[in-house]
Amino acid sequence: MKPLDSARGKAIYGLYADGNSAQQAVNRLRAAGLADQQITILSAQPMEDFEFGHIDRRSWMWWLACGGGLLGMAAAFGLTWLTEMSWPINVGGLPIYAWWPNLIIIFELTMLGAILATVASLVVTAGLGRSRGLYDPEVTEGAILVGVEDPAADKVDDFRQALESPRGARVKTV
Q1: Cβ neighbour number for residue 80 with a 10 Å cutoff
Q2: Strand (E) positions, 6-88?
Q3: Sign of torsion, CA 11 54 58 125?
Q4: For an engineered disulfide with 68, which of 55, 60, 113, 132 has Cβ 3.0 to 4.6 Å away?
């Protein structure tokens, strides 16, 4: 174990074999004065059976997908209207802008807008393309990481004690 230095990117974390131990560590970190947003939790699989698996559940992805769908629909209406109005054809007294043939294009561009917005928000919220500060290769082998990034210097011993409390904990610092 390395001592915690004053360099940027310092962190203290524990690795746990099961969800009960990880939940105990999260509860002890909360008791040590940390808010849920200050606790980092990483696991190779969803941990929905445990309370810590629901900490960052709130997401804007649904709203962004709806907004992307509305933008796609607006673009489709504009495209079909401009296309049909730019080349007016004598259609025997019928309206130049026809709804039924355009519904396919409107539906497809609505779905394209929703899909692109969803993928873009997934890339941003998942942090793809960015390097994350706290990670351990043992997470891919099934360990659950519970840690604190940039802890206050006077609280490091409290956090270490909270992370070491569950049985089988392996506490590390970076």
Answers
A1: 20
A2: 11-16, 39-42
A3: positive
A4: 113
Whole-prediction pTM:
0.64
Partners of 119 in beta bridges: none
Query: Of 78, 112, 111, 110, which is closest to residue 97 (Cα–Cα)?
Result: 78
Measured distance CA(26)–CA(23) in Å, rounded = 5
Helix (H) or strand (E) holding 158: helix 156-164
Residue with tokens 């746990």: 16
Cβ 109 vs Cβ 72: under 8 Å: yes
Paired tokens of 108: 């497809």
Per DSSP bridges, beta strands 170-173 and 39-42 are unpaired
Residue 88: count other Cβ atoms within 10 Å of its Cβ. Answer: 8
Compute the average pLDDT of residues 46-64: 79
What's the pLDDT score for residue 9? 41
* Number of Cβ within a 10 Å radius of residue 159: 27
Query: Going from the N-terminus, what domains does the chain have, and what CATH number goes with each?
Result: 11-45+142-173 (3.30.70.3400), 61-126 (no CATH)
